[in-house]
Amino acid sequence: MLLAMLMGTLAAIATTIGALPVLLVRYSNSNPYSLEKLLNAGLGFSSGVMIVASFTSLLLPSIEGGGLTISLIGFIGGALAIAFINELIPHEHIFKGFEGPIGFKKIKTAWLVALAIILHNLPEGYSIGVASAYQTIDGLKVGLAISIQDVPEGLAVALPVLAITGSKPLALIIAFFSGLSELITAIAAVTIFGEYENILYLGLSSAAGAMIYVVSHEALPESHRTGREKEATIGFFIGFIIMLYLDTLLA
After folding, report:
1. Average pLDDT over residues 18-43
2. Could you give the CA distance from residue 249 to residue 242 in angstroms, rounded to a whole number?
3. For the segment 180-235, what is each residue's pLDDT rounded down to a tens digit?
């Protein structure tokens, strides 16, 4: 429980730290290209980190401890759960636009962007909690991985909100609450899987499925949507290599 709380708190702090540069920048709608490059590189970086963390710290331990069948059930279940939530809750993508029940389309765009990031963060906090319930070292690796990729993610939250609203305080507040959702989810996950250890391997693989779904359905397509594949790909490889090195270092 303590490890999940610490790692969840670290992730929330990292998201807020990542958003701090909005206090120093002056965004102009007339020159959005620099913003697009930065956001695409950040989304690519986050994707690289999450893919490595999903396999090395979640899916592989699940297969080794629970077997392939249990792992596949959990993996598919985690992906389907996030897909269902994605369709149920209204949210706004940075480049793609509105997604969710059409009746909620009139909600202010800034809050829809916040909901999109919170949806993105749910499997991240869940992964921290499940990994912490499994082993301290895995909780540490996943927690550090999520925190590292939360820094560019915090900026990816704050910059669009700043561009939409022109309010730097609001951009920081929304980034903070999007990070806080990870802490809440991490605590909930470690409480459940720490109590019911017989479903722990199912939890590990479901966390991996949820994370991979977010990468495949949200992060990578969003990073390529504006034709900035080069920046996104560079960011992806940097994130992948950093997380692979971190995982090896902590193994």
Report:
1. 72
2. 10
3. 889 999 999 999 988 887 899 999 999 999 999 988 988 888 888 777 788 889 99
Sorted by where each begins, the domain ranges of the chain are 2-19+35-250
The confidence score (pLDDT) of residue 164 equals 72
Which residue type, as a one-letter code, is found at position 81?
A
Residues 6+ apart with CB under 8 A from 208: 54, 55, 58, 59, 62, 74, 75, 78, 127
Task: Give the number of C-alpha atoms closer than 13 A to the C-alpha of residue 56, restricted to the C-beta side.
Answer: 24
pTM: 0.81
- Determine the 3-state secondary structure of 98 from DSSP: strand
Give ∠ CA 200-201-205 in degrees, rounded to 5: 120
Characterize the bridge pairing of strands 91-93 and 97-99.
Answer: antiparallel
Q: Which amino acid belongs to residue 146? A: I
Q: Assign 103 a pLDDT band (cuts: 50, 70, 90).
A: very low
Cα→Cα distances 189→32, 158, 168, 235, 245, Å: 39, 27, 32, 29, 27
The residues facing 204 across adjacent strands are none
